[in-house]
Design brief:
The protein is mainly alpha-helical. Helices cover 75% and strands 0% of the residues. Helix 1 runs antiparallel to helix 2 and helix 13 runs antiparallel to helix 14. The longest helix has 30 residues. It is globular, with a radius of gyration of 20 Å.
């Protein structure tokens, strides 16, 4: 499959993204109480992700798909068995395969939002602003959503029983079938169960300079585990080269700044209120906040280090799923001028990305 990104591809993706922004635009300033209605969200996100033209992974997966369909040694490929099984049973069509993979990811995402009892209008807006562009890129999206669905079953059912806890544990473990790296994120979830007090946050910030130096050596052990194997590592290095180019120029620095600043501000506001001021929230959302902080912290430890820049990107990307769910819950009932500014900054970040793609192509 010879794919060449064009302006029409970009405009197609932009139009789909714009539909969600327009549909949920009132939530920038106000909150709308409504019955769960994800029909438009499901339709738009599935189509957007199936034809994920603006993601760098779209042509990469197309190439891998063709290699798998042509080889007799399918198990030698670095893709998990579930995705290979879909290739084997579905008609030979790359976009049809993507439809099933990302369609399932989107359905699990909606199920996850419902388990956390998020307001559908606000959750859909936050998803479009924070996660939509990345969600359509890696197959990891299915693993992340299954993981957080399991966490919801484990800690946040209306009537918690031994059965719901066992279901939650099984769902969490099943996420490992959808990406090799999910074992690592399950470990981070386990660490996040520990109550994080003020002292832990303060000590972690004090130790950051020392840990930053030591993480150069640690990356040698973690990188192959994140990548899964040689082919994944090779694919990952392409991301690293892309990020190095991004950081190396002024436009790249601006993009990183506008993309990450609002997320860091939202996490800071939550930590300040919940950890330092003792605001009470359901335990499951404390776990998500701890999980997000750990991943962002690790991402920053690897940031700018040439031998492990890929890890910085991977950990940051992984944190966006949890921060999206947490933001949709926590900030729904806490509107403020600063929150509105953060949402508009995220809007600008998305617009900047689409404009940059058009400019570059």
């Amino acid at each position: 499959m010879n794919f060449q990104l064009t302006g029409l591809h970009i405009l197609f993706s932009f139009l789909l993204w714009s539909i969600l922004i327009f549909a949920y635009r009132k939530n920038f300033y106000s909150r709308i109480d409504n019955a769960d209605n994800y029909k438009l969200f499901l339709l738009v996100v599935i189509v957007y992700s199936t034809f994920g033209f603006c993601t760098g992974d779209y042509p990469n997966y197309a190439e891998l798909y063709e290699r798998i369909t042509r080889t007799t040694n399918i198990r030698a490929m670095h893709m998990e068995d579930f995705y290979i099984w879909l290739i084997e049973i579905l008609p030979n069509n790359y976009n049809l395969w993507r439809f099933f993979v990302w369609g399932l990811s989107t359905i699990v995402a909606v199920w996850t939002f419902k388990k956390y009892r998020l307001n559908s209008q606000f959750a859909c807006l936050i998803f479009a602003l924070m996660l939509m562009q990345y969600f359509a890129a890696p197959r990891n999206s299915l693993g992340y959503m299954v993981l957080f669905l399991g966490v919801a079953w484990l800690f946040y059912p209306k009537h918690k029983t031994l059965a719901t806890m066992l279901i939650g544990i099984l769902i969490i473990l099943s996420s490992t079938f959808f990406h090799k790296s999910m074992f690592l994120y399950i470990l981070v979830i386990c660490i996040s169960l520990i109550p994080f007090k003020k002292s832990m946050y303060i000590i972690s910030l004090i130790l950051f300079p020392v840990l930053y130096i030591s993480f150069i050596k640690l990356s040698v052990f973690i990188l192959p585990y994140i990548a899964g194997d040689t082919e994944s590592l090779s694919s990952g290095m392409m991301y690293l080269e892309k990020d190095e180019v991004l950081v190396a120029n002024f436009n790249g620095l601006i993009r990183l700044l506008i993309q990450r600043t609002p997320i860091v501000i939202l996490v800071f506001l939550a930590v300040k209120s919940i950890v330092f001021k003792g605001e009470k929230i359901p335990y499951v959302f404390k776990v998500l906040l701890n999980y997000t902080y750990i991943l962002i912290y690790i991402s920053m430890l690897f940031y700018g280090q040439k031998t492990s820049g890929l890890l910085s990107t991977r950990f940051w990307d992984a944190s966006i799923y949890s921060v999206m769910i947490f933001t949709a819950y926590y900030f729904y009932s806490r509107p403020s001028k600063l929150l509105t500014k953060c949402l508009f900054l995220l809007l600008f970040a998305n617009l900047f990305d689409f404009a940059y793609l058009l400019y570059a192509n």
